[in-house]
Specification:
single chain; about 475 residues; five-stranded antiparallel beta sheet; 14 helices; about 25% helix
Length: about 475
């Protein structure tokens, strides 16, 4: 077991549902999401079995740049509306991680102390700015400051603290932040998975990634609360800063995208620790179509990147556009797809929404998946319920990766509460084979993401996931 029963706080068992208000639901017909729209969809959020994470900002950094902790960004609504959201969430037993309500997400947590301001080394002469994260993070007085912050602020109000830790890939270094005995942070968001396919000098340039690296990152995260450690992992496959996980890690083709969404869901919701799910992930939302022009990309980071591209000839611009489209942050910030009506049910405006709704909304939407037991949405709900009812194995259980070097499949074992679970996942469009460990038999198959019809022991179909559960 990862944690003693006395350590079982609500946030440890949380599936946190991250909401980007501008793209969640427009209640006024303005084309921009707002808090009233969020209020109207709280029943839906409750039905997912998740908590709620809100970020309200003035949009200088496309929505994740809190600068005023006393007021609500005016287009989203009023203080009265946000109070109504908080009250309605609490009535539904939903916590709100929104600055200083039930918890606090800190995206600069390892930048409070620096190593001076030396010039960064030039590693890419073609770029205006050079990587300097190692100079800006994890300075000599950082841990002193964090202990003071927890003691004098968070602990007094019973708030949890979730820190973002860029440029901190080493497990022992991460443990210095989240080890319970050090009393600094409750948990953290690591950036290893977020950057697995990013060029080290150009964040918006893709590089090839391997499933073995994906597994290594998974193992390191699970080790935070493994034997001999007293940290706590925060797991995710999507967030507001990255492309959609189906498009990124599996297949968004019409043939495989539903299977891919369920396979990735099985991976995420069976890992130990707390879990973050980004809005739309539960229905398998995918990236923007590659043929869309660049003026559909609204993120300042995307536009700033294109503005810095040398203009030697038109080929430079074409290459830059192709490079930036797939990893752009815009994909994770598109409007939520509620149904197959105009604007995907996000807005009733007769004009344009602030950001174009994905063309896939005609097929991938909440209304279409509601009640369909084979849909990604209903699969998510089933797994979220199982995760809580079998929390000893899926939230607090120990973790063992079985095939760390294989590039086509992931197999891991969870143990806890006298039960054993085996998770088998196929990350390819080709049939793959696997072997069951001695403690699991074919009779212990709990579910297949593709259904039991056509299921064969030891065989994984394209983008299939299987879960075995035994006592």
């Amino acid at each position: 077991m990862l944690q003693a029963p006395s350590d079982r706080s609500w946030w440890r068992e949380a599936i946190i549902y991250e909401i980007y208000p501008a793209s969640f639901k427009d209640s006024t017909g303005s084309g921009l999401g707002d808090l009233q729209g969020l209020l109207e969809k709280l029943d839906y959020i409750e039905s997912l079995g998740t908590l709620t994470l809100l970020r309200i900002s003035p949009q200088n950094d496309f929505g994740y740049d809190i600068s005023d902790y006393h007021h609500v960004h005016e287009p989203y609504g009023s203080m009265e509306t946000i109070k109504a959201v908080i009250n309605q969430c609490h009535q539904r037993h939903l916590h709100v991680i929104f600055d200083l309500i039930d918890g606090f997400r800190i995206d600069t947590v390892n930048m409070y102390s620096k190593h001076g301001f030396a010039d960064a080394a030039v590693v890419d002469s073609g770029e205006r700015f050079q990587p300097a994260g190692h100079l800006l993070t994890n300075g000599p007085r950082l841990h002193e400051y964090l202990r003071e912050m927890k003691r004098d602020a968070f602990d007094k109000d019973g708030a949890i603290s979730i820190g973002e830790l860029p440029d901190t890939p080493d497990l022992d270094q991460v443990l210095e932040f989240v080890s319970h005995s050090r009393a600094e942070l409750d948990t953290c968001i690591q950036f290893d998975l977020a950057k697995i396919d990013c060029d080290e000098t150009r964040v918006l340039h893709l590089r090839p990634w391997k499933l073995s690296d994906f597994k290594r990152i998974t193992i390191d995260s699970q080790l935070l609360a493994g034997e001999g450690h007293d940290g706590w992992p925060m797991t995710y496959t999507e967030n507001h800063d990255r492309a959609r996980s189906v498009s990124r890690f599996a297949s968004d083709s019409p043939r495989y995208r539903a299977a891919s969404a369920k396979m990735l869901c099985l991976y995420l919701l069976t890992l130990s620790g707390s879990t973050i799910v980004h809005q739309g992930q539960e229905i398998g939302m995918i990236n923007m179509p590659s043929q869309w022009p660049m003026d559909e990309y609204k993120d300042p980071a995307t536009q700033e990147y294109l503005a810095t591209v040398p203009r030697r000839d038109e080929r430079d611009r074409e290459f830059a556009e192709r490079s930036v489209k797939r990893p752009a942050r815009d994909h994770g910030r598109q409007p939520m797809q509620w149904d197959n009506t105009r604007h995907g049910g996000f807005s009733s405006t007769l004009g344009k929404t602030w950001m174009r709704v994905n063309d896939s909304s005609s097929d991938i939407n909440v209304a279409r998946q509601e009640g369909d037991e084979h849909s990604p949405l209903e699969f998510f709900r089933r797994l979220a319920h199982l995760r809580i009812t079998e929390r000893d194995v899926f939230v607090y259980g120990s973790f063992e990766m079985l095939d760390p070097d294989r590039e086509e499949t992931i197999l891991f074992i969870k143990r806890g509460g006298g039960k054993v679970a085996l998770v088998a996942l196929n990350f390819t469009a080709e049939e793959q084979h696997y072997s069951l460990p001695p403690e699991v038999s074919g009779e212990n198959l709990y579910l297949s993401t593709l259904g039991e019809e056509g299921e064969t022991l030891g065989r994984l179909r394209a983008y299939e996931g299987k879960l075995y559960l035994c006592s």
